Amino acid sequence: MAKYVLKCVECGKEYEDDSFRLRCDEDHEPALLRTIYRKKELTVKDELPGMFKFADYLPVGRVIDCMGAPLTYKSERLGKYLGLEKLYVIFNGYWPEKGAFMETASFKELEAPSVLARVPKDCGKTIVVASAGNTGRAFARICSENGLPLVLVIPQQSADQIWNTKPFSDSVKLILAGGNSDYFDAITLAGKLVGLNGFFPEGGAFNVARRDGMGTTVLDFAATVGEVPKHYFQAIGSGTGGIAAWEAYLRLAEEGRYGNGCMTLHLSQNHPFVPITESWADRLPEIPASDPESDKMKITETCAKVLTNRKPPYALRGGVYDVLCESSGRTYAVTNTEAYRAMSIFEKFEGIDICHAAGVAVGSLMQAVENGIVASGDLIALNITGGGERKVKTDYDLHYLEPIACFSDGEIGGRDAVHKLEALFAGV
Q1: How is the chain split into domains, by residue range?
Q2: Reduced to 3 states, what is the DSSP secondary structure of residue 250?
Q3: What is the per-residue pLDDT for 414?
Q4: What is the rounded distance in angstroms from the CA atom of residue 85 to the CA atom of residue 78?
Q5: What is the predicted pLDDT for the residue at 427?
Q6: Do residues 167 and 189 make contact, with C-beta atoms less than 8 angstroms apart?
Q7: pLDDT for the residue 428
Q8: Which of 36, 230, 236, 263 has its CA 20 to 30 A from that of 164?
């Protein structure tokens, strides 16, 4: 008997996993599948590499080589500065002195191993991943390290984000969405590629392995502290990380040993591009339609580009709106100025650099403290989704992935893109 089944959050239909399923077959509104594990007790298997120590709560049939895992520790200095007695940091990045070994310096290194280990090693197909930067860097690294085939599609403006501490394997290919393209354009281009024979989509928020991989942040907190947090702070782009955190909380609440008090989600975005924050402020069940060019202009004004997704999984069943409702959640808009100040304060008190997205999360925590939303004695989890990049670049000479093709923003929406992709991968 398989260790888990996939269950539709809308109709309840269950599926044995074929390693590729992303959606329910029934005719209803879009909805996520959720992993239901037969074994309810969480056992941390420290003998397994990296995040696979949480293999009981991962939809995987094998283990692949990786070192990255969340690191939870109590913040003394930042907590004291903010007046918080029980502030815990979930650090995801590179900080070897502390025991953190994500050489991509991003918690997206929790997604890639889980997604790849869900798929049989000899499936004979190539995974296609669309990314705004960090996810792509993580997949490129893990696929390269394990010799797994990957085609990565990212906006051209994010090309300098695809680096590694070692040379990339030939199994990893990079395609750029050029011109004024953004993450959604990269998703569109990737969608054309997965329509060709021999390729399959990573699946984004619809992939249970991606969400359960990110959910290990909450598992690590619970295993370290002994209970789930009252408040959970994280910056979001698509909001998939927030969904993942809530799903991990639900499993722990059912498990029973870590407390069943509700965990409030505190999700933040980088002003001025804050579609989820604005929609939730008005309790809208859907994000209103907006002008794409206006959105792209707002995106250019943000410092945390990885937090920009024009089509987040907000309205679908089990999506961001639902988990905010269920958790009595809150959202925040954090300006660039606030994010940079928060980054500086975190480094001053904790002793490690953090990425812009993590600065947004710290900025939201500072807003919550200033507005009396959290109390000094509350148990708080602060997910630092990326840190130590400056240290990586000090410790290693970086290697950048060269693209095999670049598509203009005019090409992406047309039929010619398919022909160009067919020619690019003819005979592969």
Answers
A1: 71-106+209-392, 126-197+398-424
A2: helix
A3: 81
A4: 10
A5: 63
A6: no
A7: 61
A8: 236
Whether the CB-CB separation of 233 and 364 falls below 8 Å is answered with yes
Give me 199's structure tokens: 């390729």
Residues comprising the chain, all counted: 428
Which residues 6+ apart lie within 8 Å of 174 measured at CB? 140, 151, 152, 154, 159, 162, 401, 402, 403, 404
| CATH code of the region 71-106+209-392 | 3.40.50.1100
**Separation between Cα atoms, residue 273 and residue 261, nearest integer Å:** 32
The 3-state DSSP composition of the chain as helix, strand, coil percent (nearest 5) reads 40, 20, 40
Q: What is the pLDDT of residue 180?
A: 87
Same fold, 71-106+209-392 and 126-197+398-424: yes
CATH of domain 126-197+398-424: 3.40.50.1100
Grouping H, G, I as helix, E, B as strand and the rest as coil, residue 336 is helix
Assess contact for 366 and 82: CB atoms under 8 A.
Answer: yes
Neighbours of 170 (CB within 10 A): 9
Nearest to 185 by CA among 149, 150, 161, 157: 157
CA dihedral 97, 98, 101, 106 (to 10 degrees): -120
State residue 410's pLDDT score. 86
Q: Cα 274 to the chain's mean position, in Å?
A: 17
Burial 140-157 (b: 16+ CB within 10 A, else e): bbbbbbbebbbbbbbbbb
Supply the pTM of this predicted model: 0.95
pLDDT in the model for residue 319: 98
Secondary structure letter of residue 403 according to DSSP: P
Q: Under 8 Å CB-to-CB from 394, ≥6 apart: which residues?
A: none
* Residue ranges, the chain, pLDDT below 50: none
The predicted pLDDT at position 415 comes to: 81
Strands 71-74 and 199-201, how do they pair? Answer: unpaired
Cα diameter, the chain? 62
pLDDT of residue 137: 95
Cα distance between the two ends of the chain: 36
